[in-house]
Amino acid sequence: MGEKLHTIFVCSDSVGETANTVVQATIRQFNASQVVVKRHGSIRTEDEVRTIVEEASRLKGFIAYTLVLPELREMMRQEAIRLSVNAIDIMGPMMQAFIDTFKDSPKRKVGLLYQLDEQYYQRVEAVEFTVNSDDGKDPSTMKQAHIVLLGPSRTSKTPLSIYLAHKGFKVSNYPLVPEVKPPSLLFELDPKKLVGLTMSVDKLIGIRSERLKAVGLPFGAKYATKERIEEELAFAMKLYRELGCSIIDVSEKAIEETAGLILAERS
């Protein structure tokens, strides 16, 4: 008989991305293969809140929510108490701290994070740039990029690039292969915008072996052998030292954590 599923409800009067990010980061800290996340966005009425809390009670789950409107937050709080459901207010305490510290009042307008302002269009432009610059498609874009990621195959270059692009940064990434000479342009760029990614041999063997399985190739393929991976990592490290760029070991890091390290160096 399979393990019982655990349900976490992510609720928001916008799209719920903030609460979902916190929940996903939390899940990664546990052996949580049996966790289901149910998202409820664009919540506008107290009846919707009541229905969600009742479902959470029935499934014995808990709720993480970001509700801007005080009446919806209060309804969530009351219903959670009534039905003995754990409900975590992710945005409320932060807003209250802002009010108490800076003596300011919130706009109480939902969806401000995603309104079509200049920053929104900058993010869209960054994503388009990053997609077109993925995996060394056009090395010349490195000149226009805010960040250039380097690394052997399967060191998280593409997902990390897209994550950073959604933060508004134009990212170019380039795969390093010992048999291919890196673009001379790399040596003309400011080392501060270059980031070299590396990973432990065992971790990379595991990731590449899963990749071979997914595409139906034999496990004995050179791509996933220890000797080949050691060669690629040594080649990458030598290049990083020549470029004088920062180096990040992504073996045990989530995409968000790696991105945080990169952005911290830029601040």
UniProtKB/TrEMBL annotation:
<keyword id="KW-0418">Kinase</keyword>
<protein>
    <recommendedName>
        <fullName>Putative pyruvate, phosphate dikinase regulatory protein</fullName>
        <ecNumber>2.7.11.32</ecNumber>
        <ecNumber>2.7.4.27</ecNumber>
    </recommendedName>
</protein>
<dbReference type="InterPro" id="IPR026565">
    <property type="entry name" value="PPDK_reg"/>
</dbReference>
<feature type="binding site">
    <location>
        <begin position="151"/>
        <end position="158"/>
    </location>
    <ligand>
        <name>ADP</name>
    </ligand>
</feature>
<dbReference type="InterPro" id="IPR005177">
    <property type="entry name" value="Kinase-pyrophosphorylase"/>
</dbReference>
<keyword id="KW-0808">Transferase</keyword>
<comment type="similarity">
    <text>Belongs to the pyruvate, phosphate/water dikinase regulatory protein family. PDRP subfamily.</text>
</comment>
<comment type="function">
    <text>Bifunctional serine/threonine kinase and phosphorylase involved in the regulation of the pyruvate, phosphate dikinase (PPDK) by catalyzing its phosphorylation/dephosphorylation.</text>
</comment>
<keyword id="KW-0723">Serine/threonine-protein kinase</keyword>
<dbReference type="Pfam" id="PF03618">
    <property type="entry name" value="Kinase-PPPase"/>
</dbReference>
<keyword id="KW-0670">Pyruvate</keyword>
<keyword id="KW-0547">Nucleotide-binding</keyword>
<dbReference type="GO" id="GO:0016740">
    <property type="term" value="F:transferase activity"/>
</dbReference>
